[in-house]
Amino acid sequence: MPKLNPPEAKTNSPGSNTLIQIESLSLHYGESKALKNISLTLGEKVVTAFIGPSGCGKSTLLRCLNRMNDLIDNVRIEGSCKIGGHDIYSPDVDVIELRKRVGMVFQKSNPFPKSIYENVAYGLHLHGSKSKPEIAAVVEQSLRSAALWDEVKDRLHASALGLSGGQQQRLCIARAIAIKPEIILMDEPASALDPLATARIEELILELKKDFTIVIVTHNMQQAARISDQTAFFYIGELIEFDSTAKIFTNPAKKQTEDYVTGRFG
Amino acid sequence: MENHFEMGLDALRQKILLMASRAETAVNQSVQSLVQRDYDLAIRVREDDNIIDQFEVEIDEMAIVLLTKAPLASNLRLITVAMKVSQNLERIGDEATKIAKRARDLAQEPAVKVNFDINRMAVMALAMVKESLDAFVQRDPAAARAIIPRDKEVDALNKEIHSQLAQHMTLNPDTIGRCLHWIVAAKSLERIADHAKNIAEEVVYLCEAQDIRHTLKN
Amino acid sequence: MSATTRRHFRAEKFDFSSFFFTGLTGLATLLILAILAVILGNILINGWQGFTWHFVSTIPKKNFFDINTTGVLPMIVGTTIRVFVMTIFVVPIGVITAIYLTEYAPNNSLITKFIRAAVNNLAGVPSIVFGLFGLGFFINFIGKHMDAMLQNPSAVWGQPALIWAALTLAVMTMPVVIVATEESLKAIPPGLREASLALGATKLETILRVVLPQALPGIMTGGILAVSRAAGEVAPILFTGVAYYMASLPHRVTDQFMDLGYHVFVLSTQSPNIEQTRPILYATVVVLLLLTFALNLVAIIIRARVRKKLRALG
């Protein structure tokens, strides 16, 4: 996939190479408009946080990036969303191929009721004609990257459902990175976890950004502050402000952003 | 897996140490320029002060960003203490500049023949600065507490020098201008010791979460 | 609440309505248990003596009203086989229909609503109607046409047969399997589907690799319910395959067969001497109950194993 050079040096993009380019994207559920004319440029290998009150469209936008919204009836999308310069909503796009490149981790950890090993190998079985030892190697590597290997290496063939909530979520991350995506979307990945498990996920995200571009939806302001390089604030379907995380949390340009990050509404 | 927040705190700590060594050097060189009547050195100390100022700005920026990440307990104290330490270091740098300014002027005039112990005062103030910063690095509240009473000694010494110079001025009115320079320089050293004491108090707060400022007045 | 009111958590007075409804529901349960006990007790007490190894392993002579020579082996075999053949048809077709309804059919479209309504209505149709339907559709329509096409000299398919009885039962129990499968498919957390799709699986891959294995116990519950319902049914097979008497066990799907339920009916209505037949009747009912019970038990054991495997899995 060709990498686009940044079209112009945009001040709101710390990433050196543009990877995701959303232009005047609107999304309708039937009659109601869930996203209004969003334009956003995300660089490669940066962590971007989407914040905003519930129902502001941040999860919807996240799901636009791997076309998970396709699963819902009556969704209509206008504008364009380019990944690596290619509009993912153009008719020639293979959604399967897109989802291989854009992985996703969900709010509620959702390991398959299979073994730990089979969970990570699932995507490989789907796509690869890899041999058994190759798959085993990728499984190990993915579990290591997800900082889970040491905890599960002795019980790879035990059920994934026997893991703790935090471990399950890291397993889901391992499962996502096993098929080597470029982008990982995370939809409130730590919202159901205790502070310690949350801290581990956050550390993991900071490690993963060396290799992946990460977009994360979070309700936790400090989490966004801790792990993201840039932050986008949404309100009722609109992108209110997008800037470096330090700027958003110490000196936001818009009053709405300030009110939200300081907890005055939302 | 390393902890990224801890890494941020480490970077902050490193920056404080760099700033501290700059401030120490500034005080050292200013005293040196004063005592050895070194005009060039005095000029350089004044020029270098903006580096220390820049450090203060950078440390504040780092600390603010770290504060957005919801630090707790000792981490929170470290960040706020770091900001106060950097502020005190900046003031120490300013005082060093003031000394250097007097040194520059004094270097262009004949020396005053007074027998007062500015050297001892400089050594004491410098030691307080150095030891308070060591206590910060080592997180040693005992060492920090030990520094605080020494401020009184420096104050006493300052008073002594002050009266010696006053006496000298009444006897030799032609030296009044130069003696005033010396008085200001000594006052600056006394202020440096004050800032060192402040740093020591912050170190105690950092380690023991106990605010001891304004409690040891008597 | 005013400041003078004291708050406490003790009940003010005896809660009569709560007591009344606890008693009422308890009594209703007891009543059901009592009826069950009376039925089972009556059957077991009266049928136990006739229930011998000789009885269950003998192919009887044409006159099967003699307690000393009669047996129910052909009926056991017939009932077992028809239930088994029915399962082979009803489970795959029912499961595939349910998959279509839950996974593929557009939600809330007219056609989906229509199919659901049809399935529900099917469950309410009296079983004798299914019997007539089997006769009209399977035997007189499909069977006759097969004979014509295969140019059979005499009726092979166009007559009552094991296969037609099993298919009629399959049609009858289809709603049970469809509804049970639909429920178990709907019960699978949407997160699992999303996880699979987000990893780049197609819908079919997701259904085969994630959804179906998870739904298996629920599907088997549907199968068990179908087996339970079918094992004791007589009406649907009346015109479609059951025989009053056969000298040998069935060995082709086009053969007729004897059936336990139907045999009970025959014994109680066709006997020349009702007093003499009564012990045979009771013993046959015991066999019917035990067989139904056994068929269920086998299915339940298999389901338990599947569940265990799903939970432990390798």
Stretches of chain A where pLDDT is under 50 for at least 5 consecutive residues are: 1-14
Overall 3D geometry of chain C?
globular
The CATH class of the domain at 18-114 and 182-261 in chain A is identified as Alpha Beta
Strand order of the largest sheet of chain A: 6-7-8-3-9-10
SS element count, helices of chain C: 11
Largest sheet of chain C: none
Number of strands of chain C: 0
CATH architecture designation of the domain at 18-114 and 182-261 in chain A: 3-Layer(aba) Sandwich
Sequence of secondary-structure elements of chain C: HHHHHHHHHHH
Structural class of chain A: alpha/beta
Question: What is the rounded distance between the termini of chain C?
Answer: 60 Å
Number of strands of chain A: 10
> How far apart are the first and last residues' alpha carbons of chain A, in Å?
39 Å
Helix fraction of chain A, binned, reads 25-40%
What structural category characterises the helix and strand content of chain C? Answer: mainly alpha
Q: So, the CATH homologous superfamily of the largest domain in chain C?
A: MetI-like
Percent in helix of chain C: over 70%
Average pLDDT for all residues of chain A: 89
Quaternary structure: heterotrimer
Q: Which radius of gyration of chain A do the C-alpha atoms yield?
A: 18 Å
What is the beta-strand fraction of chain C? under 5%
Outline of this structure?
Chain A is of the alpha/beta class. Chain A is built from ten helices and ten strands.
Topology, element by element:
The complex is a heterotrimer of chains A (266), B (218) and C (314).
Chain A: E1 18-29, E2 32-43, E3 47-51, H1 58-64, E4 75-83, E5 86-87, H2 95-101, E6 102-105, H3 116-127, H4 132-145, H5 149-152, H6 165-178, E7 183-187, H7 195-208, E8 213-217, H8 221-227, E9 230-235, E10 238-244, H9 245-250, H10 255-261
Parallel strand pairs in A: 3-8, 3-9, 6-7, 7-8
Antiparallel strand pairs in A: 1-2, 1-4, 4-5, 9-10
Helix pairs in contact in A: 3-4, 3-6, 4-6, 6-7
Chain B: H1 4-35, H2 39-68, H3 73-107, H4 118-138, H5 141-147, H6 150-171, H7 176-208
Helix pairs in contact in B: 1-2, 1-3, 1-4, 2-3, 3-7, 4-5, 4-6, 4-7, 5-7, 6-7
Chain C: H1 16-47, H2 53-56, H3 73-104, H4 110-124, H5 127-150, H6 162-186, H7 190-198, H8 203-232, H9 235-238, H10 260-270, H11 274-312
Helix pairs in contact in C: 1-11, 3-6, 3-8, 4-6, 5-6, 6-8, 7-8, 8-11, 10-11
